[in-house]
Specification:
The complex is a heterodimer of chains A (449) and B (445). Chain A has 449 residues and is an alpha+beta fold. Helices cover 33% and strands 21% of the residues of chain A. In chain A, the strands form five sheets. Chain A has a seven-stranded antiparallel β-sheet, sandwiched between helices. In chain A, strands 4-5-9-7-8 form a five-stranded antiparallel β-sheet. A three-stranded parallel β-sheet of chain A has the order 1-3-2, with helices on one face. In chain A, α7 packs across α9, α7 crosses α10 and α11 packs antiparallel against α12. In chain B, the strands form four sheets. Chain B has an eight-stranded antiparallel β-sheet. In chain B, strands 5-6-10-8-9 form a five-stranded antiparallel β-sheet. With 445 residues, chain B is an alpha+beta fold. Chains A and B meet through β8, α5, α6, α8 and α13 of A and β9, α8, β11, α9 and α11 of B.
């Protein structure tokens, strides 16, 4: 069954898969599930990376692929109202001619849905400057576990009352099923410049990251790829990346022409001061697209050279990047694995990709240990267990690493308010208590970050 | 309050931190209700202990930072303990290169900006209460001024919170990294909850580099129609102003010239841009073109920071002259500001209500300050009609400040939609004995 998987892995099949077209359909489904005491799992395109949309306990999988209408585009008020199944990039494409776009841009944006983005509070390369999904959602229509429909937030900022929209975004389908989303639209910048800084040492690249922000520049995006990843990507995409370097930074600046030119010059200076051996600028839109294509399809490229890989998603303060990359190098040696690093460096959001062959049980066990070591180190550095992929199934039992029993008890209490029988996306986000501190859900998958 | 209760609180925080002197407590009054005592804890653990005590004994608590926004809200149903957070004003963690900071809630915004400003950073907010407002109060009220145009509000800057609950526990949400999706985002829930769910004892915030240069321009727009056209052109341009405010004639006159001897006709747009010298020159050029296109003149204002501070906190600057100025705040789809202002002006004229108003026209927030306080049914009726006007435009209207007498006839927040029951449940989950600012929030929460 196709719907047994997301980009992570699967454990069990759903009992039924339904494709609603309207909010009323969703209400009927929710009421039927209530009557028959069945679990309900909402799902967009299944591009998630933490097992958030797999039906681990069976029940009804509510797939939003037929609720994909853009209901309203209101450029005068810079907002749009969409159904959850609208593909992220489709919204931006629909308004591109008018000079607007929807800012959150997960790497899977050609496939992932806005409903899924809302559930996971998704990020993307350009969140460094523009924020993640929650910063761009104004209001939601939500079907609650009892079939009641509520509307949170509004069409404007500062609706009086508690910010329920802020609570539902990122709640991973455990508090209700979102059936309509009002988002903010952004004006496309006048100018964009994309730079590629090439390094012979990983440490020089990671040091550059904090050095750029220290100059008072916030790039629109600041991504890093290490040499190992880069070579795999280059072989797959022929984006023109250098094959013999230790790391590259992909840096983008946006805004007024004047600002973009000045920032690009200044960033180039910072890169060279930090021993970049070369700083290239994309000369055309095509060159820029090619550089980004390499970045956004990197996971697939790694899939070509390894039967399986596991993507970790951890966050650290960006000043700790040099230290962290050294640590990951140590983990690689300790467990005799290959780890690629491709990540949102500006945010300190790491994505180590650990290569393995799932048929090799010993190696798989080492991958789990390596992934755990890395996430524990993130927490020790003052970071988090997930920056954008979500807790889902995979990391629910890692929650005690960053939250106390009291914290988790309060989260459970809030979950129980909206999800009293635990039928909404069971087994996700909060620890089950069965395997404390272990990665669950197994290791598999592809997907994009 | 009995002596026993008094001593129990004193045991929790130290007797010098508990005041029962009526004169001292009067200073913490909310809507004319005076608490029995004022407790000023020095540590987060003491905050939790006081809240636990309050929960167990059903004593109503209002958390107070610097008290700059205490008049916002419905009158409290009960009010026994004022919990002053002004002694919790330490820096817990500050790493300038990470652009993050964690502080205690009682730190004032002025102290905060000075501290981070020394590193070339700032929190790009211009909240009500200005430099005097506390960080905790700014978050609890989610107040943002015109800088929201470019940077968003407190909601977008809070990375993590530590919250003391009425069960005497702490709840953590988020952290001190800029990206984090672990667990429910209670940071959003607490931001703007006006101290009705828990008390913030630590806040981690995202900082921004200060722009190298800033410049403020003003443009006489004449009519609201012209102002709307200019606002549209600016928002469709690539200029991305940091602040964009529309002042009516009264507000603009009072801002520059408190004697009103030289009243300024028509509305005026205030625009601030930031960036390098070249960026500012470019903005100046384009704004000048825009102004001449509508027959206006663009003026560059030097030293405009003081004026912006007044705009962000207009009512405060009006009070010495006009007394207890009632302030209404409308939140609208962003293109609705000018039309709403026009309605408000018409209605005010009909009721002979004096008005000074400013609108954050790029985000759809309009503040109306009533200059002739009369406390007549006219004012109530006028507010009701404006509330309807805001609703017609797809927005809502709240009373940010008004005399307490006025509050008996009106819900300051306005009607809430079909999510009120969910809000009530959340309140019950966080504050089961309803001891935090009971009755002050939306829907009587």
């Amino acid at each position: 069954m196709l719907y047994e998987y997301d980009a992570l892995s699967s454990l069990r099949q759903p009992d039924a898969v339904v494709f609603p077209r309207t909010t009323e359909h969703v209400v009927k489904i929710v009421k039927a599930a209530l009557q028959h005491k069945l679990p309900l799992v909402a799902r967009g395109a299944g591009t998630g990376l933490s097992g958030g949309s797999v039906a681990t306990e069976g029940g009804i999988l509510v797939v939003f692929s037929r609720m994909k209408q853009i209901l309203e585009i209101d450029l005068e008020n810079q907002r749009a109202r969409v159904q959850p199944g609208v593909v992220n990039l489709d919204l931006s494409l629909a308004i591109a001619d008018e000079g607007y776009y929807y800012a959150p841009d997960p790497s899977s944006q050609k496939a992932c849905t806005i409903g899924g983005n809302v559930a996971e509070n998704s990020g993307g390369p350009h969140t460094l400057a523009y924020g993640v999904t929650t910063n761009h959602v104004l209001g939601l229509e939500v079907v609650l576990a009892n079939g009641e429909v509520i509307h949170t937030g509004g069409r404007h900022w500062d609706s009086p009352g508690y910010d329920l929209t802020g609570v539902f975004v990122g709640s991973e389908g455990t508090l209700g099923i979102v059936t309509e989303i009002t988002v903010r639209l952004s004006r496309k910048p006048e100018a964009v410049k994309t730079l590629l800084a090439v390094y012979n040492q990983v440490r020089d690249a990671t040091r550059t990251v904090a050095a750029i922000t220290a100059r008072g520049i916030t790039p629109a995006a600041l991504e890093m790829m290490d040499g190992f990843t880069l070579r795999a990507v280059e072989e797959a995409t022929h984006a023109g990346y250098p094959m013999d370097c230790a790391a590259v930074l992909l840096i983008e600046v946006e805004g007024l022409r004047e600002a973009v030119e000045e920032h690009a010059d200044e960033i180039e200076g910072v890169c060279l001061e930090n021993q970049a051996r070369d700083v290239r600028r994309a000369k055309s839109a095509e060159e820029r697209d090619l550089l980004w294509k390499g970045r956004k399809t990197a996971f697939g490229a790694l899939g070509r050279i390894s039967p399986n890989y596991y993507v970790q998603d951890g966050v650290i303060p960006r000043t700790r990047l040099p230290e962290m990359l050294d640590f990951i190098g140590g983990v690689e040696k300790k467990y005799q694995l290959h780890i690629g690093n491709i990540f949102h460096a500006g945010d300190g959001n790491l994505h180590p990709l650990i290569m393995y062959d799932a048929r090799d049980r010993d190696q798989t066990a080492r991958v789990e240990k390596a992934a755990k070591d890395i996430i524990v180190r993130c927490v020790e550095m003052g970071g988090s267990i997930t920056g954008e992929h979500g807790v889902g199934l995979e990391k629910s039992d890692l929650m005690p690493l960053i939250f106390s029993e009291d914290d988790l008890e309060l989260m459970s209490r809030v979950k129980n308010l909206f999800n009293p029988e635990g039928r909404l996306n069971p087994g996700k986000l909060l620890p089950t208590g069965k395997m404390c501190g272990e990665l669950r859900g197994g290791l598999a998958g592809g997907g994009q970050v | 309050m009995t002596l026993a209760v008094d001593s129990e609180l004193a045991a929790l925080v130290g007797s010098s931190h508990v005041l029962t002197d009526p004169a001292a407590c009067a200073g913490m009054s909310v809507d004319d209700k005076v608490p029995d005592c004022t407790v000023t804890p020095a540590k987060a653990e003491q905050v939790a202990a006081v809240l636990q005590y309050a929960g167990q004994h059903r004593r109503a608590v209002i958390a107070v930072g610097q008290g700059t926004k205490l008049s916002t809200g419905n009158p409290p149903q009960r009010y026994d303990i004022a919990l002053s957070l002004r002694k919790l004003n330490r820096v817990i963690h500050f790493e300038p290169a990470d652009l993050t900071i964690c502080v205690e809630p009682g730190m004032t915004f002025g102290e905060f900006q000075t501290l981070v400003g020394a590193q070339g950073l700032w929190l790009p907010l211009d909240p009500r209460g200005g430099a005097e407002a506390s960080i905790g109060g700014i978050i609890a009220a989610n107040t943002a001024g015109p800088l929201r145009q470019a940077f968003g509000g407190p909601r977008d800057m809070v990375l993590g919170l530590r919250i003391a609950t009425t069960e005497g526990k702490f709840a953590k949400t988020g952290g001190r990294v800029v990206k984090n999706v672990a667990g429910y985002d209670f940071g959003k829930l607490l931001t703007g909850s006006y101290g009705t769910l828990g008390v913030i004892v630590e806040a981690c915030l995202k900082l921004f580099p200060k722009p190298p240069e800033r410049a403020t321009f003003t443009m006489q727009a004449g009519t609201l129609g012209i102002a709307r056209d200019v606002r549209r052109s600016i928002l469709r341009s690539s200029l991305s102003p940091m602040r964009l405010a529309l002042l009516d004639s009264a507000a603009n006159t009072l801002l520059d010239n408190p004697r009103e001897s030289d009243a300024k006709p028509g509305v005026e747009l205030w625009i601030e841009v930031g960036g390098s010298h070249r960026v500012i020159e470019r903005c100046a050029f384009e704004l000048k073109q825009l102004a001449s296109g509508v027959g206006g003149v663009l003026v560059r204002r030097e030293g405009a920071e003081v004026a912006w501070g007044k705009i962000a906190d207009l009512a405060r600057w009006l009070r010495p002259k006009y007394g207890d100025v009632t302030v209404l705040k409308a939140a609208l789809p962003l293109a609705g500001s000018e039309e709403f202002l026009s309605r408000a002006q018409q209605e005010a004229e009909a009721e002979k209500i004096g008005l000074a108003s400013f609108a954050q026209v790029g985000v759809g927030i309009v503040h109306l300050c009533v200059l002739q306080e009369r406390r007549t049914p006219n004012l109530l009726g006028w507010t009701a009609r404006l509330r309807q006007a805001a609703a017609d435009l797809g927005g809502s209207l709240m009373i940010e400040h008004c005399p307490v007498e006025f509050k008996s006839g009106v819900d300051v927040w306005g009607a809430r939609g079909d999510d009120l029951e969910a809000m009530r449940k959340l309140k019950a989950a966080w504050d089961p004995h309803a001891v935090l600012a009971p009755g002050r929030f939306v829907g009587g929460i």
